[in-house]
Structure formats: structure tokens, C-alpha cells
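ESCALATION

Customer reports they have been waiting on this structure for their group meeting. Please prioritize. Original submission:
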Amino acid sequence: MWIQLKATKHIEMMGVQKTYRAGDWVDIGKHLAIKWIADGSAYIPNQEINAGNIDYTAGLCVIGDLTDNIKKKIETAANHLSFYYADKPELPFSETLIYDATFKKIRVEFIGTGFYWLKTFEVILPLFSYKKLAIHAGNEQDREITKAIIRDLRVPMHDERLMFVRRSDKTIAFIESYNNYCDIIKEKKLALLCAYYEHKPITLALPTTWLDKDR
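Update from on-call: job pushed to the front of the queue and completed.
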């Protein structure tokens, strides 16, 4: 992405660090370009920069009703985030935290870190349990459907109640697939496994304590 600098930057190109000064044009990665535009150290002349044309937005997709108390905690921890309410997971932002509000123990102190790691990973979410595997979850029909897709049920499950997702063609398909599997698999964690095995997004599995410090 081409931008014009408003401040001196030291940029590594082809393994060699070069110094660029205010007024220089540079072609860098989109995420870094957006960061520099946001902090005022670069811009795109003759173009209005907003979320619409740079496609950089971040927020929560809240499933269910969010209590005023939890919303206030989230806003205090990350006041730049937008809120979007839905009946099922969606990706309304370029970086979305999908949060099931029926679970009341979200650890707001980790929200900023989760979004930061989306620079590297496509999906970030905690493990559900270190002991309970897919073979222990759902009913018999759920396990039969899941086994037909992933083959071995002796695998850990992720917790669908807290998912950081960077929007891309792959993750859009991943979330759509998850929603479709939820229509035929009652246990959401097994539905998520099926969608994961089908699309294989680059994923970071977090400790179980990311959702609840007591787990």
C-alpha cells in the first residue's frame, strides 16, 4: 500500500534497513500503513481516509444481551471498539471479537492483546478444557457427524464463546461453515471443530483462563 510519510521512518526492505523522511513515498504492508495513518505519521494525499475505504474497523459481535455492567467494563478497557448485536456469529468488522454474552466472565484485560495478535493469526480463541475432548461432548448423532469430518474425536475443543477473527475470504467461509454446522450439530464446540477442519484458518489457541481466570 503506497503512502506518503509525514515523519522519518526506518524501514527494512529486502533485508536492508533504509531511512525514509517526511515527504517520501513508500510501499508497505496495509496493516502498518493504516497504523501510521492513524497515528498521523503518514497519509494518502487527496484521499479521505476512513473505515470505508481502508477497511480497518474493530469491534465486538455480541451474541445475546450484553449487561450494562459488562459493556461498561469493555468500554473502559478498550474504548475504541464498536458494538454489533446478532443472533449468530458474524464478521461485521475487519477485526471482530465474537462474544457470547450468556457467559458473564469475559476478562476485559485481555481484549487489547487479542486484537494485537490478529496481526499474525486469523482466529484466536481459548481452549475449552485440558481434559474434556471431543469424544466426551455432544450426543451420539453430534459425534457421528463430527467423526465423519475430523475422523478422530480424541482432540481438544476450542471455546466458541470468545473468538477474535480477522476478516478474510477464508474466515468468512469459516464462520459461515460454523453457523451451518450449528444447524445440524447441537454441541457448538463440535460444530466449530468441523468448520475448523474444513477451512483450517491460522489459529492461536489460548489458555482456558482467557475466558475465566478460575478455570
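Sent to customer with the following note: The chain has a mean pLDDT of 85.
Escalation resolved.
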